[in-house]
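Q: Got a minute? One more chain.
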Amino acid sequence: MAVPNTNTFNMRDVSNTVDPSKSQLTQLITVANAQSTSLWDATYSGSKNSLLNFRNYGSATTMNAYTVAFGSTEAAACSGFSTKTVFQLSSSFNFTSTIYSSSAGLSPATSSWYKFGSDVRSWKASAQTWLGAAPSLCSGGAP
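A: Always. Here it is, folded:
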């Protein structure tokens, strides 16, 4: 869901789009900037310091779905036994961009080890970051 492309939206509209647990403008700006700069509509984003800068926030994004293997350990993810769909703003899955649990991009995917192709890497949801310097290569298991 995006912030409406009008000048009549309110703080609740922004909160519902960015992070429903946040209610202060400064918190919402911080979270929005951390999510992705591409979520801002360049026509209205300005200095990103007022409620009106959120006009049309999140409307121009296309979340792409990727099926990935996951597990609580590197070995479990490499086995390919459990899979789930995660979403990224990127046009091809990568281990540098934030992964989300839904196409709305409102919350990061759960903390876990994720495997895509033959690469595996640990994701920490609370920090919205990948851990380690680079993905590891799975030594075996299903693709």
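A: Residues 64-130 form one domain.
Q: Perfect, thanks.
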